[in-house]
Specification:
Residues 178-184 and 188-197 have low confidence and may be disordered. Strands 1-2-3-4-5-7-6 form a seven-stranded mixed β-sheet, with helices on both faces. The protein has helices spanning 14-29, 42-52, 105-119, 134-142, 177-182, 186-196, and strands at residues 4-8, 58-65, 68-76, 88-96, 124-130, 146-157, 160-170. The chain has one domain (4-171): Aminopeptidase, CATH 3.40.630.30. With 197 residues, it is of the alpha+beta class. Bound molecules: coenzyme A. Coenzyme A binds next to strand 4, helix 3, helix 4 and helix 6.
Length: 197
């Protein structure tokens, strides 16, 4: 039986970095990487993950299956000098390796980011996604993120421009945290069934 957890990463072992690189590479190849269109050289990817932990304003949350990291999300807060934005945070690079999707990990990663944001006294979380990232759009809208605008010139992928959607959520309103704790992921049940086959 698989064991699924989500938690904050305070340090990354070599094995953790290798897992994150494997997961990121497979997500990028699947077409839904976080910015990268092709997997960068492995050494660069490794430096990227190690660098995330060095940035004071970034918190890295990782999702694990049977101890191995298969996805992650980052909560980014403004630097201290940006006083006007202290109540604003961003969720970024929320991804799960294609083969680990449908288990509710992105939901748990999003909840972990929101809980951390609340602990920091954050009022609003802002984020943006390509309009082609349908699963992410569904995920965030199910969490109560409101689309306040679109940018038709958001990204260019394979020579084609792609619009982007901008979302915001007021964490002070009744959150979905309680509700989602009671409501298991729609797909979870199906995946559990598949895992048990
Ligand atoms: C978006 C993503 C992170 C979802 O990961 P996941 O672990 O499979 O998601 P979960 O199992 O936690 O599902 C949570 C919710 O997301 C939505 N969702 C997930 N996969 C979906 C799909 N294929 N189609 C539609 N909605 C989907 C649903 O609302 C789902 O809730 P439900 O199961 O109750 O219906 C994953 O598909 C991914 O890594 N995509 C590429 C990267 C990306 O787009 N990141 C977001 C912007 S940085």
């Amino acid at each position: 039986m698989s064991n699924q957890t989500v938690g904050k990463a305070y340090e990354l072992s070599d094995a953790n970095v290798a897992d994150l690189c494997d997961a990121a590479e497979s997500a990028i190849l699947d077409g839904g990487g976080f910015g990268w269109l092709r997997p960068p050289p492995r050494a660069l990817l490794e430096r990227y993950w190690r660098g995330v932990l060095l940035v004071p304003e970034r918190e890295l949350f990782v999702g694990r299956f049977d101890g191995r990291i298969v996805g992650s999300a980052q909560l980014v807060r403004p630097p201290k000098n940006n006083e006007a934005h202290q109540q604003i945070a961003t969720i970024t690079t929320n991804f799960v390796a294609p083969w680990a999707r449908g288990h509710g990990l992105a939901r748990d990663l999003t909840m972990a980011c929101e809980r951390a944001a609340k602990r920091h006294g954050v009022w609003f979380i802002n984020l943006d996604v390509r309009e082609t990232q349908k699963a992410a759009i569904q995920l965030y809208e199910s969490f109560g993120y409101e689309c306040w605008g679109t940018n038709p010139n958001y990204a260019v992928v394979n020579g084609k421009k792609i619009a982007g959607r901008y979302y915001t959520k007021d964490l002070r309103k009744v959150s979905k945290l309680k509700r989602s704790a009671k409501t298991p992921s729609r797909k979870k049940a199906g995946v559990k069934k598949a895992l048990n086959k």
